[in-house]
Design goal:
Layout (H helix, E strand, L loop, with lengths): L5 H11 L4 H12 L14 E2 L8 E5 L7 E5 L5 H14 L4 H5 L17 H19 L1
Helix pairs in contact: 1-3, 2-3, 3-5
Family: Belongs to the SufE family.
Protein name: SufE protein probably involved in Fe-S center assembly
Pfam families: SufE
Amino acid sequence: MSTMPAALAEVVSDFQDVEGQDKLALLLEFADELPALPSDLEEAAMEPVPECQSPLFLHVDAENRDNVRLYFSAPAEAPTTRGFAAILATGLDGQPADDILAVPDDFYTDLGLAKLISPLRLRGMSAMLARIKRRLRT
């Protein structure tokens, strides 16, 4: 846990504090809180994440490597994908690039969702983080 930014560690802790179906409810709460895209950013200009089962687009603004901005777009009818995107937005938006790169690739296993969500969907979350890291390395 020590390699996670405090905001992401707090999200993981919130998930660890609830059991069973309450974890899904918490994920859906996050889905409802996914920030809207800024008016100057269009989905067409964003990178698709084809590993996700639902259409998901992300944009990494690393112009200031001490304050990386992350933007996600996922349809309302894809609450699991939106929830994952919102977890990453809550936990990583505004963090330094080096801190994001230090996040364990499998941090999402600590959320305890494996019994509730298909491995395919969990791979989508892993793919989102991998793409963010790849953008930060270029």
